[in-house]
Structure formats: C-alpha cells, structure tokens
Amino acid sequence: MKKTVLQGMRPTGRLHLGNYLGTAKGMLALQENPDFDTYYMVADVHALTTPFDPSELSISRKSVAIDYLSCGLDPEKSAIFIQSMVPEHAELAFYLSSVMTIARMQHLPTFKDKVKQYPDHATMALLNYPILMASDILLYKASMVPVGLDQEPHMEIAREIARKMNDLYGMDFPAPQRYKSKGEYVPSLMGEGKMSKSVNGSFINLTDDFETIKKRLGGAPTDSGKGEMVPKTGGVANLLKFVELFEGEEKRKEYESMYTGSGIRYGDLKNELAMAIDKELAPIREKRKELETRPEYVDRVIKEGAEKARAIASVTVAEVKQKMGLG
Ligand code: TRP
Predict the structure, then answer these.
(1) From the CB of 147, is ligand 1 less than 6 Å away?
(2) Which among 54, 97, 228, 301 has most CB atoms closer than 10 A?
C-alpha cells in the first residue's frame, strides 16, 4: 500500500534558499518516490490565524504555488493545491475540534509564543491553528508529514485527535508522523541561527539574480581569513557551509586548508560561491518567468490539484459525518 504524504506551507512571503534546500528538495524527492502519494498544499487558511492583509494574501497564496512549480513539483505526480479551494479542510476542522479541550490547546507552546508576538490577536482562529493542521493531515489519512522539529507539538495534537476519533467514532486514521527529510540545515548569512525571512541580511531569495546574490553574500561577516583553527560557528563557518552545499565537500576542504595556511581571500570565495548559487537558481528563475507568462496554466494546475484533493477529502468528511451521527 502506498503511503500518503501531506505537506503545507503558509504563504508568508516568497521562498528563499533555506526553504528550497530544507523543504522543497525533500518534497521533490518524495514526489519521485513511487511508494508515496504526495499532497502539497498552500496553507492559506492558516494565514488568517495571525494579522494579514487580504490583497497581499490573495497574491502570495498563488505565488507560493508558482514557487512550488518552479522548483520542480510536478502536477502529474503530486496534487498541488490551495487549502481554501478545498472547503473540507475548514469543515473537518470543526468536527475535530469537538474532541479537544480548550485547556489542551491553550497550553501549546506555539500558541503561547504567537500570543506574545501578537497580543492583540489572540483569536479563536489562532487557538484552532493546530486543529486545522490536524484536519489537513487526517483528511487524506496521511501518515507522513515532512515538517521541521518546531512543528512537533502540532503533530502530537494531530495524533491525539486521530486516536480520539478512532476510539470514539470508529474512524481508521493512521497516527501521522513527522518525516525527517534529508533537507539541509541552511544557516543565516549573518552568522547566527538559520536562514529566515524575518532576519534582515540572512537570506537569499529564489528569485535573486547573480548581482543580487553577490551583494547579499557581500554583507556576510568574515574575519582576517587566517587562523590556527577553522571557526566552527559564526559568519565564516556559515560561508564554508554554503561552499559545501553548492560547491562540494572538496572545495570546502581546500578553503579550510587555506584558512590554516596562506589565508582565504573572501572576495574570491564570495564571487565563486555566488556563481555556484546562481547556477543552481537559474533554472528555477527561468521556470518562474515562464510560468508568470502563463497564468491560465497555473490556474488550471491549482484547480485540478484541488479537484484531486477534494475527491479524497470529501470521502473522509462523509465518513466522519456518518460516524458522528451527521450522515
Ligand atoms: N504549521 C505549518 C508550519 O508553520 C504549516 C502547515 C499547515 C502544515 N498545515 C500543514 C504543515 C499540514 C504540514 C502539514 O510550517
């Protein structure tokens, strides 16, 4: 039996290099694996759980779908869709919310963090965020969810809900697991933490051209280029990580011996690295440009993706309704 994979991304800004290496590449690998059915969703309903601008949201949700396609997600192999186009997500979420208590949801660290971040937006939608995510997963009876460690509390909620629905109403939801994709940890250009849209100077966009990539790398902190020991943390360590990711292990070793020998000239390193990154991003950029001239194709892909998703989602909702006495 094939296993079902479901993955969602909130449409907060465009994809950057970190998302690409850490997430999109893993999604691509799963899509190519014949053991899996893959459902890839833009979680636009989840965007309503924190402050948002409607006109921006209506653009960004499509933009993420275009990013998915540009990176090589293939509508022939994966269902690529936008969450709000499959109304069963919101519907099932309500049914599922009946088995969870307010207390359980209020104690989630992710909820508390967001309330701290947006004290004036402690809405019911925010409290329900993990239930909506459980609904995303259980609608397709997905057993594998490729998300980061930070999503583990939400995965726990999804498993709890699955168990309760199975015990109370005789559903057969599998216990979904977080799937650790081989995705790389992509560090910030600024030397600390990971690449993130919310940290200025930390990221490279998938749409950046060579000059922009060079400029962004130019801002990455360095040192004198020489020393007894190659730094293990900070700006230089991160630059070497990028060298490894885009130019290979051997190249990294070369730079490491330069560091303890004659010294690294960072101008040259950054220039070479910019070329290597540009080479990897060029086809994605081109695909995006091409897709932007074919909005009707993108619309069709999204529509067909939603139809594919609905075909499964509606069966699950009918089953849940029937077992809960609503059928
Ligand atoms: N909560 C996820 C995140 O912030 C996004 C998401 C929403 C998701 N629904 C999902 C991820 C379903 C996986 C499966 O990253």
Answers:
(1) yes
(2) 301
With a 6 Å cutoff on the Cβ, whether 4 touches ligand 1 is no
**pTM of whole model > 0.85?**
yes
**Number of domains composing the chain:** 2
In a domain, 196, yes or no: no
Q: What sign does the dihedral 31-314-138-118 (CA atoms) show?
A: positive
42 lines ligand 1 (CB under 6 A): no
Residue 137 near ligand 1, beta carbon < 6 Å: yes
Share of the chain above pLDDT 90, in %: 88
244: domain range? 210-289
Same structural domain for residues 35 and 156?
yes
Q: Which atom of ligand 1 is found nearest the CA of 10?
A: 5
- Kindly report which listed range (98-107, 195-204, 297-306) carries the lowest average pLDDT score: 195-204
User: Identity (one letter) of the amino acid at 267?
Assistant: G
Contact (CB, 8 A) for 154 and 109: no
